[in-house]
Amino acid sequence: MQLRSYSENDVRGKKVLVRADLNVPLKSGAVSDETRIAASLPNIIKLHEFGALISVVSHLGRPRGEPKPELRMEPVALALERLLIAQNCGINTVTYVPDCTGTAVEEAIAAQSPDTVVMLENSRFYPGETKNDAEFARQLAQPFEVFVNDAFGTAHRAHASTVGVAEHLPAFAGPLMLREVEALSRITEHPAKPFVVVLGGKKVSDKLPLLQNLCGRADRVLVGGAMVFTLARALGLSVGKSLVEERHIDACRDIVADYNESATKLVLPEDVTVTDDIESPANIANRRLAEIEDREMGVDIGEMTRDAFALQLSDAATIFWNGPMGVFEHKPFDAGTIAVAEAIAANPEAYSVVGGGESVEALNKLGFAASISHISTGGGASLEFVGGLELPGLKTLAV
Ligand code: ADP
Ligand code: MG
């Protein structure tokens, strides 16, 4: 997939609306993790060097279409201003405007000098945002001449600030968006073989399109996490108190049948770690998948499986990983996730991509981020991309 990128000619002297992903965590009214703000800087600095007049819009949290004082963009604007000043890029002020459309925005832009950035209000304060309302999109686009979308994390949503505005303005992808799509395309278009996928996490229902789309494309799909147990039920096994999505057992049966007929090997764990209680585990045991007892729940891949998965990853040329192998938040149920991270680190020749909210959190927490070729910032968006779905936010930027 090829996206339109901007050059100096496209933006010099123009009023540019940037859609960034500044959906950051907040604690007592301040930004508690600035990763996403830091990731938005290269685009803003490049636009500034090219002589654009920059305004930024993002959503923050889930205000459900109405203003929520605790989700205003003001603390984000302050953090962005501090990070821009630290970059010495010539931008020294971020002006927060408590609105996305109308006179307040027009006045701020009319008064804007090139060394300032305007930060609009949380786009999800407006009911028209998530509905991709045509009138809201028109009003949002109205003061601007160019649209730059650098928010890969929301590219799977057809919202006014990601899709609607692009109908009114020349639209370009920002560098973060380009980097994501380039990295994920290496997974979806002619991946170097063997192409090995590791899937885990909580809900198999979230990953069904992914499982379906990888069938026939990947060489091996290694499955861990709670997903294992709905698949195990589809194979007729009992799984005790393990997490099962009853409604999806049939779909899992179809998927297993599809894999059996394809060249892709679906690898389920031979054994799993089980316990009686995640929060206060009195009993922890290693069980064969077929031998989980009624009062037990599977919380991680087992000891044999950790070695088996490591072996399957050792000769991989391309690796895509989504979803932790177990309840990694609770030691010692992080052992399977650590084993997979170590196996990827032990194969630096492979091109590796990790996507998914908790997967990335696990990598950072366990200290393996540096051994991954590309860590996707877009949880749901990266899953949909690799799942073969069309992302509306990318379609408007395609060449
Ligand atoms: P991602 O955000 O990376 O896509 P998911 O949201 O699908 O991942 O799943 C992450 C969650 O899955 C983690 O919070 C983890 O505790 C949980 N999980 C993993 N394995 C199990 C399991 N066996 N039983 C219950 N929860 C699990
Ligand atoms: Mg998640």
Keywords summarizing the entry:
399 residues; Rossmann fold; 6-stranded parallel beta sheet; elongated; binds adenosine-5'-diphosphate; binds magnesium ion
Describe this structure in words.
This protein has helices at residues 8-11, 35-49, 74-86, 103-110, 127-130, 134-141, 175-188, 204-214, 227-234, 249-261, 303-314, 335-345, 357-366, 379-386, 392-395; strands at 15-19, 26-27, 30-31, 53-57, 93-96, 116-119, 146-149, 171-173, 195-199, 220-223, 265-267, 271-275, 284-288, 297-301, 318-322, 351-354, 374-375. It has 15 helices and 17 strands. It has 2 domains: 8-176, Rossmann fold; 183-386, Rossmann fold (3-Layer(aba) Sandwich). It is of the alpha/beta class and 399 residues long. The chain has a 6-stranded parallel beta sheet with strand order 5-6-4-1-7-8. Strands 11-10-9-15-16-17 form a 6-stranded parallel beta sheet, sandwiched between helices. Strands 13-12-14 form a 3-stranded antiparallel beta sheet.
